[in-house]
Amino acid sequence: MRRISGWWLGARGGKLAAVLTPGVTMRIGSSITALTLMLAVGCGGAEYGGMSEADEAADIAAVEAVVSAEMGSLVAGDVAANVALLTDDAVIMPPNEPALAAAEADAFFAAFLEAFAVSAGEYVSHDISIHGDIAIDIYHGELTLTPAGSDETVIESLKGIHVLERQADGSWKISYDIWNSNDPGQGM
Predict the structure, then answer these.
(1) Based on the domain organization, do 39 and 60 belong to the same domain?
(2) How far apart are CA 113 and CA 135, in angstroms?
(3) Is 78 inside a domain boundary?
(4) In what order do the strands lie in the sheet with 2-4?
(5) What is the extent of the structural domain holding 31?
(6) How many CB atoms lie within 10 A of CB 128?
(7) Please, what is the average pLDDT of the chain?
(8) What is the rounded CA–CA span in Å between residue 161 and residue 177?
């Protein structure tokens, strides 16, 4: 096992594993999950030298604007606007679904918005950290969904992680979007 920024990575039983705290080991079953964890861990302990508080605050505001636009695109039912927030090589990891490449995101979100009308959505809390050209947003949110063919609405409580990359023009785009429901079986 190798220590990286307060985490331990190594192999156990032929599989990559991460020890998050002493005695707690998480096995990593797919290469995409491993890549995401390594990206987050690799960036987690690095301080971006020379970043002023004003620059960090501006980056956090820019990241908040991107994830707010993501939520807004879902409420508006605008698949193209949602997918435009992703990098070309982004990976999305929806609940109970396989990981999807950016090229598959439009079909996923179109199918989701066909299955559910999203009447409201908000990120209830964020923990955003900036690490050079990488931003990590750990969040909790809520979506108000109405399943197709139903009049009953469901409030879906969710949690997730966005990993964003600073683009050449200084803007931010989502490179990894991982989320799960807090209420399995209700909506998503």
Answers:
(1) no
(2) 27
(3) yes
(4) 2-4, 7-12, 15-21, 24-27
(5) 2-44
(6) 19
(7) 80
(8) 6
